[in-house]
Amino acid sequence: MIKDELKISVVKSANTSQLVELYKDAGWWEEENDNQDPEFLNKIIKGSFCFVIVKYKTRIIGMGRAISDGVSDAYIQDVAVHSDFRSQGIGIKIMDTIIEYLKTNKISWIGLISEPKAVNFYKRYGFSTMVDYVPFLLKESKL
Fold it and tell me: Can you give the pTM of this predicted structure?
């Protein structure tokens, strides 16, 4: 059974080529990103308060991360499971690990922005729409 062969870890480094494959599978990696500095993903990992990977044998098949100052608030980002391994509870294991890690570090305000297709997944944890708040994204400006 696949669940018996999964290893979930909070890490400070990981195989970046496997992470690129995961980002591409999730639709988050554009072709122009292929020319990025190879350290780009390692900087993301090291700069995250919590970076979780799930391995099946030696292959990274899932990931998630939280960014935080380590004291008050945290935002969960980039939760992904490779399409070949979805619907097996792996995303739940990732979220459980991230939330436990944050709560162990006494961080109780945890937010995220969800893609519409994942809303029900996050609601199971008690996440809800922040009424009267609107997420924003800064587009490149010509200042």
Answer: 0.88
b/e code 102-131 from CB counts within 10 Å (16+ = b): beeeebeebebebeeeeeeebeeeebeeee
For residues 48 and 24, what is the distance between their CA atoms, to the nearest angstrom?
Answer: 20
Relative to beta strand 6-10, strand 50-56 is antiparallel
pLDDT of 1 over the 60 cut: no
| Domains in the chain: ranges and CATH | 2-123 (3.40.630.30)
Q: Name the strand (E) or helix (H) holding 20.
A: helix 16-26
CA-to-CA dists, residue 89 to 7, 28, 46, 47, 85, angstroms: 13, 21, 26, 27, 9
- Answer for the pair 85, 62: CB distance below 8 angstroms, yes or no: yes
Compute the distance between CA of residue 78 and CA of residue 129 in angstroms, rounded to an integer: 18
Cα–Cα dist 33/38, whole Å? 10
Residues 6+ apart with CB under 8 A from 83: 25
Contact indicator for 54, 14 with CB cutoff of 8 Å: no
Predicted confidence (pLDDT) at residue 126 exceeds the cutoff of 60 = yes
